[in-house]
């Protein structure tokens, strides 16, 4: 690839493939550059360090995995149904990633652990979406009173078993879907006014 035509998106795509092929412990910036047919200096012009590149790959993966969530949060459904749909979409997105490509999912677990500040920012955004749904539910009388930000955080934590990668091995076992629905029902009853 010509160095002048190289975009950050091209580099991220190559980095993802290199991470899939070699794993996070062995993948290097030189491997990414080699996959693109450019010098590693060219990669560094777009991403100043290996950590910055890995952080960008992580952000891209999270953004893609959770792309549907903002639309659901702002959707036309009544807040109780919207909250249920949002939580189900989050669980489904994580479940699909874990089951479709377990090796790459394991790689992302390592990258997530490396990028705690990025993850905290991402989670804060997800909790803000939940808080937005809760505010509307409070305004419509579907949900009881309380600080929407704190309630969004509690809902996120209460459902962590169905989106935290630490529990990924349990997402495919029989009964997981039913347990998820029971937890969501419990959360919705707790939010009711």
Task: Put the structure in a nutshell.
72% of the residues lie in helices and 0% in strands.
How would you describe what is shown here?
The protein has 193 residues and is an all-alpha fold. The protein folds into 2 domains: 3-48, Homeodomain-like (Arc Repressor Mutant, subunit A, Orthogonal Bundle), CATH 1.10.10.60; 61-191, Tetracycline Repressor, domain 2. Helix content is 72%, strand content 0%. It has 10 helices and no strands. It has helices at residues 8-22, 29-36, 40-46, 50-65, 69-73, 79-100, 102-114, 116-140, 148-158, 176-191. The radius of gyration is 19 Å and the shape is elongated. The termini are far apart. The mean pLDDT is 92.
């Amino acid at each position: 690839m010509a160095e002048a035509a190289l975009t950050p998106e091209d580099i991220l795509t190559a980095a993802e493939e290199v991470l899939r092929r070699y794993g996070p412990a062995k993948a290097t910036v030189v491997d990414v550059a080699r996959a693109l047919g450019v010098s590693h200096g060219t990669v560094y012009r777009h991403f100043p360090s290996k950590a910055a590149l890995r952080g960008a790959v992580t952000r891209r993966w999270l953004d893609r995995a959770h792309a549907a969530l903002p639309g659901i949060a702002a959707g036309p459904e009544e807040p109780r149904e919207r909250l249920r749909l949002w939580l189900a979409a989050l669980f489904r997105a994580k479940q699909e990633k874990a089951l479709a490509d377990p090796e790459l999912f394991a790689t992302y677990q390592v990258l997530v652990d490396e990028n705690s500040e990025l993850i905290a920012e991402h989670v804060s955004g997800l909790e803000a979406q939940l808080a937005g749904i809760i505010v509307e539910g409070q305004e419509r009388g579907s949900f009881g009173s309380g600080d929407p930000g704190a309630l969004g955080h509690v809902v996120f934590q209460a459902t962590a078993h169905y989106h935290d990668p630490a529990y990924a091995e349990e997402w495919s076992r029989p009964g997981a879907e039913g347990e998820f629905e029971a937890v969501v029902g419990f959360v919705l009853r707790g939010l009711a006014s």
